Amino acid sequence: MQLDAHHISASPAGLNAHALPTGTEFCSGAVNRTGINGLSQCGTLGLTTGTFHVSAVQPISYVIEEVEGLLDPDNKTLLRGVVPDSFPLGLSLNPAQPGERRLVVIDDNVYRIYGAQLRQYFSLNGVEATIVPLPTMEANKSFDLVYEVARRAEIFKLNRRKEPIIAIGGGVCLDVAGLVANLYRRNTPVIKVPTTLMAAIDASIGIKTAVNFDNRKNKLGTYCPPLGVFIDRTFLRTLDQRNISNGAAEMLKMACIKDAQLFYLLEQHAEQLRATSFQDKAASVAMRRSIQGMLEELEPNLWEHILCRLVDYGHTFSPEIEMAALQYGDELLHGEAVNIDMALTTQISYARGLISREEQARVMDIMQRFRLPMWHPVCNPDLLLKGLRDTTKARDGLQRVPLMCGIGEAVFVNDISPAEITSAAAALKSFALQTSHSSSENNNIVAAPAKIAMPV
Known about the structure:
Shape: globular
Strand content: 5-15%
CATH topology of the largest domain: Rossmann fold
Number of domains: 3
Radius of gyration: 26 Å
Largest sheet: 6 strands, parallel
C-alpha cells in the first residue's frame, strides 16, 4: 500500500476533528508509520466525504501432482504440510516430523479397503493421525456431514497454521472436507486425495465446495482452493466398473467440446480404459488431457464471473435429473446424469445441424462403450424445462448452453425452445426403450445398445 501525498492534506476541520495528540506514534511490528496513511483506492478522501473504498486481491496458488504409491511408508508426499508464514498458504516440500499430527477425513468405503494401510503409514512415520471415516454419498451430502467434520476438527484442536486437513475419497468427501476447511477458523488448509476417476479429473482440481440443500444440488458452498491435490491412479484399481464409467463421462465432456485428440483416444481405447480401470499408458494420457483441459477453463475463471463456461457442458439439465433420480429411488451417479444431459444436447445439436449424423453416432457410441445411461424415467419434458429455467436463472437470465458444433468444438446458445427439448427427449426415450437392456452393472438404468441406431 503506497502513501498518497496528494490526499494527506484534508480539510482542517475534517482532519482536526480526529487529530491524534502531538507525538503519538502507531507501531505494528517492525513497521512504524505515524498518522493516517490512506486507502489504496481513495487515499484519505473518506476523512472528508465519509465514503471509503477498499480494494484487495487474494492470490490463488495450489499444486496438483501425480503420485505413485502414496501410502507407501517411504513416500513422504502425504506428510507435507504448510510453508510457515506463507500467503497464500503454500504446500511445503518438507514432511511432517515425528510427533506432529494430522486430521484425516476419509470415505468409509475407502477406509474399509485402505484403513489399515493408512494407519500403518502414519504410525511408521511417527505422525499422530486422527482418522475420521464418514459415509460420504450423494444421499447424505448435507450440512450434517459438515457439522460432524467440524466437530471432529474442534475436538482435535486443529492448528490451522500448521496442520492441514487431509481428505481422502470421492467427490462428495472432498466437497464436504473442503467446505469445512473454508469455514473452520475461516480458512484451514486442506490436502485432497481423490480415489475415484470423477474426483481425480474433476471434483478435486477446482476450488468449489458445496453440499446439497432443500433437495437441490450443491446449493450451499464456497470457493476454497486446496493446499494441494495428490492423484494416485492405483486407487482406481479397487473402483467398481460403474464408478469408472461415471468418471469417464466427465472425460467425454471435455473431449466433446474442447479436445478432439482426447475424443479420438476415447474412441480407440474405450473398452481397454474401462477394463484396466485406467491403469495403462493411454489412461495416463487421457487423464492428463482431461485435467489440462479443465484447468485451462477454470484457472482464468475460478470465481465464475464469466458465465459462458465450456465446463458447463452436460450441466444444464443434469442437476435436476440427478436430484430427481435420487428422490425416485433409482439413484444416478453424477457422471451418469451428466451423460444423459450430453445425450440430450447432442440430439439438439444434431437437430439444429450443428453436428452431422455421423458425429452424433460417434458420441453416443462412446457413451455406450463406457456403459453410460442415456435416459432415466424421471426425464420428462416438464422436469427438463424446469432444469433449463433454473440454470438460466443461475446464469443471470441467459441460457448460455454450450452445444457441440463439431468434435472438440462448441458454441453457446440462448434460444433452446421447449419444443426442441420435448422433441429431443421424445427421440431419446423412444430410442432407449427400443434398445433397452437391464444389468446389475448399470443399476437397471436404460442405456444404449451395442449397435447404435440413432434417433431422427
